[in-house]
Design goal:
Layout (H helix, E strand, L loop, with lengths): L12 E3 L2 E7 L11 E6 L6 E4 L4 E8 L2 E5 L2 E5 L4 E4 L5 E5 L6 E8 L2
Antiparallel strand pairs: 1-2, 2-3, 3-10, 4-9, 5-8, 5-10, 6-7, 6-9
Length: 111
């Protein structure tokens, strides 16, 4: 890799209720942090809880509308919304029924 990648050149990884484009990974020579990804969340009936991590995670909404659940808090999502998840917090995203997905840029960061 030449330290750059376009999402159109990345095959998404299909997971239940969402798919992820891994843009920059450790295998590319990226050090000191975790991969940079774009996720498209397609579930609208309940939050897709993706777990809790030992590190913190940052999300930035690129497209779509929906909600994020971080711990017990609900955050409305629209393009331009940025939020973070503290270490150990459960979190999930769901789209509004009227849109195809919520597309977010996300990455993990060391504590």
């Amino acid at each position: 890799m030449d330290q750059a990648r376009n999402i159109k050149d990345v095959e998404p990884v299909q997971l239940p209720w969402h798919y992820v484009y891994h843009l920059i990974k450790a295998e590319d020579g990226f050090t000191g942090g975790s991969p940079v990804c774009v996720g498209c969340y397609t579930r609208d009936d309940d939050f897709l809880i993706t777990g809790a991590h030992k590190d913190q995670e940052v999300f930035y909404v690129l497209e779509g509308t929906g909600s994020a659940k971080v711990g017990d808090s609900i955050i409305p999502l629209e393009p331009g919304t940025c939020f973070f998840v503290k270490p150990g917090q459960t979190h999930g995203i769901k789209r509004d029924a009227g849109c195809a997905y919520v597309k977010v840029l996300f990455f993990h960061a060391a504590v």
